[in-house]
Amino acid sequence: MKLFKTLFATALILLSSAAFSANIQVQAVSQHVHILSGKDYGTNIGLFDTPDGLVLIDPMPGEPYLAELEKTIQTIYRKPVTHIINTHAHADHTGGNAFFASRGAQLVTGTINRFDITHRVVKSHTGTDNIYYYKPGNVIFVGDVFDTSWHPTFYAGGVAGFNQAIETILSLGDEQSLVVPGHGEAASKTLLRAFRQNTLDWVNMVRTLSKQGLSLEQIMADKRAVELVARFNPQGKSPFLPSKAYERFVQRTLQVIEHESL
C-alpha cells in the first residue's frame, strides 16, 4: 500500500511538471493539495481543495506571472480561488493577494478555524508568522520560518522565537508530515530538525568568535563559519550566498546576539 502511494505521488508530480506552465512549477502532494512556485520569486504557494472552497496560500507578486498562476490553478481544479491566506506579510508572499481578490477571492486574516486547517502563530522570521497544518493532506506550510534554499532568517524572534517556532511546527501532524518552507524544496521533519541544529550551531559559533574579538570580516573568513554556512546549501548551489548576503547574515546574527545580551 505504501509503495502504491509513493508511485501515485510520483506520477502526479511528473504529470504536474509536464502539463502546466514554463514559469509556474507544480507539485501534486495529493488529489486535494498542490504546491506551486513561480520562476522569479521561488515562493512556495499552497493550494488546498477544501469543502469550503479553493484556498490559496501566499500568492507571489508579478503581474505577468499572476495570470499564468491563475490559469495553472484552473487547469488543476477548473474552479476559482475562493480564499487567500498568508504565512506572513512580506511582499513575496502577499503580492498576489489583490489580483485574486479582484477576481472574487476573500482574504482571510486573524485566527483561522476553518478549511480543516490548524493555525498557529509564532514570532521568528517576522513579528507574526502563521503556521498552517492541513490535516487531510498531512502538510504544514511554514513560510520563511524555514527555508531550504537560503540561510535562516530568525531576526524578529531571535533564538528563543526561532526555537519556539520550530517546536510548534514539530508538534503538528506526525513524522510523515510534509513541511513546506517559504522557499526551496519541501522537506521532512528530520530535515527541519537538522535545520534547527545548524542554525543553533551557527549562532553559537558567531557568538564564540565575537567574544574572541574577531571583526565581522574575520568571522566571514573563518573556516568554521564557511563550513556552517555550507550546511544550509543542501542542493550544492555555487555560489550559494553572494558576498553582500553573507555579510548581511553575519551582521544580523551579531545584532541578534547583542540584543539578547542586553
UniProtKB/TrEMBL annotation:
Its EC number is 3.5.2.6. Keywords: Antibiotic resistance, Hydrolase, Metal-binding, Periplasm, Signal, Zinc. It is found in: Periplasm. It is an enzyme of class 3 (hydrolase). PROSITE patterns: BETA_LACTAMASE_B_1. Its cofactor is Zn(2+). Residues 42-183 form the Metallo-beta-lactamase domain. Pfam families: Lactamase_B (PF00753). It catalyses: a beta-lactam + H2O = a substituted beta-amino acid. SUPFAM superfamilies: Metallo-hydrolase/oxidoreductase. Residues 1-21 form the signal peptide. Belongs to the metallo-beta-lactamase superfamily. Class-B beta-lactamase family. PANTHER family: BETA LACTAMASE, METALLO-BETA-LACTAMASE DOMAIN-CONTAINING. This is beta-lactamase. The lineage of its organism: Bacteria, Pseudomonadati, Pseudomonadota, Gammaproteobacteria, Alteromonadales.
